[in-house]
Design a protein that fits this description.
- By secondary structure, this protein is mainly beta.
- It has 8 helices and 20 strands.
- A hairpin with a 5-residue loop joins strand 16 and strand 17.
- Keywords: Signal.
- It holds the Pfam family DUF1329.
- This is Outer membrane lipoprotein-sorting protein.
- InterPro entries: DUF1329.
Length: 454
């Protein structure tokens, strides 16, 4: 795939002196650290002083023996055992490395635990992404009051970030492969553990990888996304189509839905911000998808710190065919025996709702992995300032594609004692496919009816 340079402009934009200074490009001298003392993506290459975080040596380079190149990712570390397990009884010993959300889960559920394993810095990307990130370091700027990007190639825009908004943009536009089709499940169990699975067929294609990308001529689009509900029968055939714009203040996300029962296509402006997530039973907002997505304009973003924290990592057990969905989904939370947490450095960013703006989350606290730029933990607070929802991304790496992503996204609702788990693949055959091509024609509103035919 050729990474295509995209310049997103909004006409004549006047930025305040404060914003301009905050979003200044880094110097060539600073950018030269990438691939040296910093990894090509901007993380600290060295391990920590105690040795509990190792040096980054290029990520996971060896594909495990037994992998069949079939989209079924086996565990490359099957012999690893937990170093220790954090429970409510001993959480005080580890409090400085736990999020408030993790502490709340330990306090709420007597059987909740955090198994901590050896830290393995497996995250890596293709060389073309590293090359683009280095170019972006001295070229990409925030425009439109931080709501858009200028001089941006499809990779990490700010590998050496200077503020919280730049860190969030690194998460929003991070590389996730050129094209991907996946068949995955979503569960929203009741407090007693009863659940059913909604099955989706997702397609994600970046603008630059369309077979007719030049004809698309749409520089404000990052990628195209289509989601078809496969089961249960009452929802099957419903389709969501999204053209993900970058500057969503200049041009809101283009979204359409096809209702199989009505056989109608209609615009879907509610697929943004705190609009309800698809088939989520009210447990997820639209911008909870992929941990966080969309326009950042409703929040003030503060870069709090960089810290060592226990986050889900190398979560290959959650993908295993050795388990059924019922082995993963349990009452109150997923089966923590199948999880793996490791000590990693994360960027901590606090988002507070701007005065006059509306959103059901008044504050969010993000913990973003330095190696992949993916959000790994997010704590969500309501308008009263109380912790409401806790999001966890159980990270893994598509080692044959060199793409870090999520094995499972989980969003816990502390008030209702329910949760949403998205990304289940244990019972799916060949759940991931990076070897397909799509044209712009496949992502038009007219194509929705074809996708949703039962």
């Amino acid at each position: 795939m050729n990474i295509r340079k995209k310049i997103i402009a909004s006409g004549v934009i006047l930025l305040s002196i404060a914003v301009s200074n905050a979003n200044a490009k880094v110097t060539a001298e600073e950018a030269a650290k990438l691939g040296g003392e910093l990894t090509p993506m901007g993380a600290e290459k060295a391990g920590n002083a105690s040795g509990t975080i190792p040096e980054w040596t290029g990520g996971i380079q060896k594909i495990p023996a037994g992998y069949q190149n079939d989209g079924v990712y086996i565990n490359p570390f099957p012999d690893d055992k937990p170093l220790f397990t954090i429970t409510k009884a001993n959480m005080g010993e580890h409090a400085d490395k736990l999020t408030e959300g993790q502490k709340a889960m330990l306090n709420k559920y007597a059987d909740y635990k955090i198994p901590v394993y050896q830290s393995r810095r497996t995250a890596l990307y293709p060389q073309k992404v590293y090359d683009a990130a280095k170019k972006n370091a001295t070229a990409t700027e925030l425009i439109s009051n931080g709501n858009g990007l200028a001089n941006f190639e499809e990779a990490t825009p700010f590998p050496i970030p200077k503020n919280g908004l730049e860190v969030i943009w690194n998460h929003i536009v991070r590389y996730r492969g050129g094209s991907l089709a996946r068949t995955i499940g979503q569960a929203t169990p009741m407090p007693n553990g009863d659940f059913s699975v909604v099955k989706f067929k997702d397609e994600l294609t970046w603008l630059s990888t369309l077979t007719d990308a030049k004809e698309a001529n749409d520089d404000n689009v990052l990628f195209y996304f289509k989601q078809v509900i496969v089961a249960p029968s009452r929802l099957a055939g419903n389709v969501l189509l999204v053209h993900e714009t970058i500057d969503q203040v200049k041009e809101p996300r283009r979204a359409w839905v096809y209702n199989a029962g009505q056989r109608r296509v209609r615009r879907a402006p509610q697929v943004a911000y705190d609009g309800p997530g698809t088939a989520s039973d009210g447990l997820r907002t639209s911008d909870n998808f992929d941990m966080y997505n969309g326009a950042p304009d409703r929040y003030n973003w503060k870069l709090v710190d960089k810290k060592e924290m226990y986050i889900p990592y190398n979560s290959y057990k959650l993908l295993s065919k050795d388990y059924k969905y019922e082995d993963v989904i349990k009452a109150g939370h997923i089966n923590q025996d199948l999880t793996r947490y490791e000590l990693h450095r994360v960027w901590v960013v606090e988002a507070t709702l701007k005065e006059g703006e509306r959103h059901i989350y008044a504050k969010r606290v993000f913990y973003i992995d330095e190696d992949s730029w993916g959000a790994s933990e997010i704590d969500h607070y309501d308008g009263r300032g109380e912790l409401w929802r806790v999001a966890e991304a159980h990270n893994f790496v598509f080692y044959d594609q060199k793409i870090p992503w999520y094995a499972l996204e989980v969003l816990y609702d502390l008030q209702s004692a329910r949760y949403l788990a998205f990304g289940l693949v244990n019972e799916a055959n060949a759940p991931y496919d990076f070897n397909y091509e799509r044209s712009l024609r496949d992502f038009t509103p007219a194509a929705l009816r074809r996708s949703g035919s039962r």
